């Protein structure tokens, strides 16, 4: 994530000033997109937002619906529909993903069961930044569209990968100087 050649400087845009992002290109139209954000939001508030599966679409732009269809212990299946504008056209895609929760590691790992992609796998990770009260929120996605899906939907969308990370942060309570909390 700290490769200066691939990270963008978002310091001019207050919404994204603490976000680093990368994109790697692989054969067959596969892309790995990753974004990392530093936040003062607590681990518990970040985890709570990320695991509120049936409401993710309410605050993550381009996610039209998100529904938990199965849960047994730490294993969850979600059905999600997303949409992206590209060259004036709206493309939508549906996925059913298998997700594994590891709260102790702050990790949500997911992979495709079925859907409109050939590959859709990745993770959300929450890590405490040593010697601080801050956390790092990392979103990592490897995606390969189907033949009918234009690759530009992924490669021309730098805001697309950082928006979910910023949206999760925005839903978490922020500590105030007097110790009270408010919803961002």
Explain what the structure shows.
By secondary structure, the protein is mostly beta strands. The chain has a single domain, classed as Alpha-D-Glucose-1,6-Bisphosphate, Chain A, domain 4, CATH 3.30.530. Helix content is 14%, strand content 49%. The protein contains three helices and ten strands, in the order ββαββββββααββ. An eight-stranded antiparallel beta sheet has the order 1-2-8-7-6-5-4-3. A hairpin with a 6-residue loop joins β7 and β8. The chain is globular and about 45 Å long. The relative contact order is 0.21.
Characteristic key phrases:
184 residues, mainly beta, Alpha-D-Glucose-1,6-Bisphosphate, Chain A, domain 4, eight-stranded antiparallel sheet, two-stranded antiparallel ribbon, 3 helices, 10 strands, 49% strand, disordered N terminus
């Amino acid at each position: 994530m700290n490769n200066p050649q691939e990270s963008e400087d978002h310091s001019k845009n207050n919404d994204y000033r603490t976000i680093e992002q990368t994109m790697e290109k692989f054969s067959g139209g596969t892309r790995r997109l990753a974004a990392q954000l530093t936040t003062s939001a607590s681990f518990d508030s970040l985890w709570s937002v990320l695991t509120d599966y049936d409401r993710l679409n309410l605050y993550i732009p381009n996610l039209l619906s998100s529904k938990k269809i199965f849960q047994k212990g730490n294993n969850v299946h979600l059905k999600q529909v997303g949409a992206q504008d590209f060259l004036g056209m709206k493309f939508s895609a549906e996925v059913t993903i298998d997700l594994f929760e590891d709260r102790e590691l702050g990790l949500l790992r997911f992979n495709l069961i079925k859907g409109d992609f050939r590959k859709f796998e990745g993770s959300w990770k929450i890590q405490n930044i040593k010697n601080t009260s801050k956390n790092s929120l990392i979103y990592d996605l490897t995606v390969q569209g189907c033949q009918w899906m234009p690759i530009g939907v992924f490669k021309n969308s730098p805001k697309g990968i950082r928006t979910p990370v910023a949206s999760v942060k925005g839903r978490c309570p922020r500590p105030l100087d007097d110790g009270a909390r408010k919803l961002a």
